[in-house]
């Protein structure tokens, strides 16, 4: 994979950078600027070299239409604050305003192009549709830097086709992500523990399959765990259940046993009358994992499981975690996710290499107040880090080789 060094002297050159600024918004307020901060090292490195930095990114899913609420204006403002300079926002991605703002750049200046997904061609599955559009963007720059790890698992105009039109390299963030995830998957220090949560087993099938012969220990929580408990013959009440995955999960349980992989499931669960929304009251109750009442819904792992999961994580040399243990947005069902995060922090202190695998897990550790430096690596890409762990070839990385 080519890196910034491979691009040579960038002084005075127009460098297009695909960043990942898909941040959560409440109105025009960014509620978690982690992804913007993650892009700063690459932007600063390019500015220090005297490059003219042209940033592009997406926000939300405007589906090829201009949606004013999904403008990157709040990102340009926050980025300017973090860099201590003005970051103008172009009104389009490659049109007149983008061209004018790029032409006005001086060495070390930064401009942000408007949401690339306002263009229907950006996410087209047809390369013949994407290519001419990507050429219009590529015409703005003289080199391309891929620094949006959250999108490298997709072949899209601004991260894949543009890379084919210009001298291209990975930014510091993508380089760091690939190094960290490779360290966990290629030759992990053992014991190697993988902690999986989140709502659906189906989202994590590939990861489980790929890691059943790599990991020493698989720790399962979140909504996906109820399909595992059901596969063991337990009653799961009204908990989230993927009936169509039961046979697959039974197979995983057998394979884990055969491969000597320790499969750690919760021994107790926090249940409620239903999902805590609308008229459903929050009345948590702890029950054994094999005795969930038929009319109750599991929403977190219980206190005994929290200690079990924490201790298994601390007894590891490499830990990868993807997916919360429960509905962590509701304080009464956040303790399981907190226990896992604390386990990773304690394991890191004891010298383990720990990865928080992007998406909901990354936002959980921030929202629950854990320091970012408490972990070896917090990934910025949920889907991308999952596909990396599945051992898939990621088009946005392949194109940089």
Automatic annotation (TrEMBL):
GO (cellular component) term, any one:
cytosol
Whether Ion transport counts among this entry's keywords is no
Q: Which UniProt keywords apply?
A: ATP-binding, Cytoplasm, Glycolysis, Kinase, Nucleotide-binding, Transferase
Catalysed reaction per UniProt? (2R)-3-phosphoglycerate + ATP = (2R)-3-phospho-glyceroyl phosphate + ADP
User: Where, in this chain's numbering, is (2R)-3-phosphoglycerate bound?
Assistant: 35, 117, 154
Entry keyword Disulfide bond: no
GO MF assignments: ADP binding; ATP binding; phosphoglycerate kinase activity
Give the EC number(s) under which this enzyme is classified. 2.7.2.3
Q: What class of enzyme is it?
A: transferase
Which positions are annotated as binding ATP?
Answer: 204, 298, 329, 358-361
GO BP term (any one): glycolytic process
Write out the residues that bind substrate. Answer: 20-22, 35, 58-61, 117, 154
- InterPro entries (UniProt xref): Phosphoglycerate_kinase, Phosphoglycerate_kinase_CS, Phosphoglycerate_kinase_N, Phosphoglycerate_kinase_sf
Give the protein family.
Answer: Belongs to the phosphoglycerate kinase family.
Summary of subunit composition and partner proteins: Monomer.
Query: What's the protein called, per UniProt?
Result: Phosphoglycerate kinase
Look up and give the organism this protein is from: Bifidobacterium moraviense
């Amino acid at each position: 994979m080519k890196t910034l060094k491979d691009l040579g002297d960038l002084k005075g050159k127009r460098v297009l950078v695909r960043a990942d600024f898909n941040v959560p918004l409440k109105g025009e307020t960014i509620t978690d600027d982690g992804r913007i901060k993650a892009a700063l090292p690459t932007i600063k490195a390019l500015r220090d070299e005297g490059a003219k930095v042209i940033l592009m990114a997406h926000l939300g899913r405007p589906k090829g239409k201009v949606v004013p609420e999904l403008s990157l204006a709040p990102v340009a403002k926050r980025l300017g604050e973090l860099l201590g300079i003005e970051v103008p926002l172009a009104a389009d991605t490659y049109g007149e305003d983008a061209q004018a703002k790029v032409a006005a750049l001086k060495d070390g200046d930064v401009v942000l192009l408007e949401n690339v997904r306002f263009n229907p061609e950006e996410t087209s599955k047809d390369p013949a549709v994407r290519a001419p559009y990507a050429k219009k963007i590529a015409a703005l720059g003289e080199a391309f830097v891929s620094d949006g790890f959250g999108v490298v698992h997709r072949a899209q105009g601004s991260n894949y086709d543009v890379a084919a039109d210009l001298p291209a390299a990975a930014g510091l963030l993508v380089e760091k992500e690939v190094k960290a995830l490779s360290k966990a998957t290629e030759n992990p220090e053992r014991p190697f523990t993988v902690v999986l949560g989140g709502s659906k087993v189906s989202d994590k099938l590939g990861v489980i399959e790929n890691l059943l012969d790599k990991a020493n220990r698989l720790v399962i929580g979140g909504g996906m765990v109820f399909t595992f408990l059901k596969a063991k013959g337990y009653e799961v009440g009204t908990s989230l259940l993927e009936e169509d995955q039961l046979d697959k999960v039974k197979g995983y349980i057998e394979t884990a046993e055969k491969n000597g992989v320790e499969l750690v499931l919760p021994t107790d669960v926090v249940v409620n009358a239903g999902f805590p929304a609308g008229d459903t009251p929050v009345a948590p109750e702890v029950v054994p994992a094999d005795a969930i009442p038929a009319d109750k819904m599991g929403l977190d792992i219980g206190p005994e499981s929290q200690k079990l999961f924490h201790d298994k994580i601390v007894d590891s040399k490499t830990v990868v975690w993807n997916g919360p243990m429960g509905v962590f947005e509701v304080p009464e069902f956040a303790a399981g996710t907190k226990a896992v995060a604390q386990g990773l922090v304690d394991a890191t202190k004891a010298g383990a290499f720990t990865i928080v695998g992007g998406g909901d897990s990354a936002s959980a550790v921030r929202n629950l107040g854990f320091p970012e430096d408490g972990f070896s690596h917090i990934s910025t890409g949920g889907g991308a880090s999952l596909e990396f762990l599945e051992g898939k070839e990621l088009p946005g990385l392949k194109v940089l080789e």
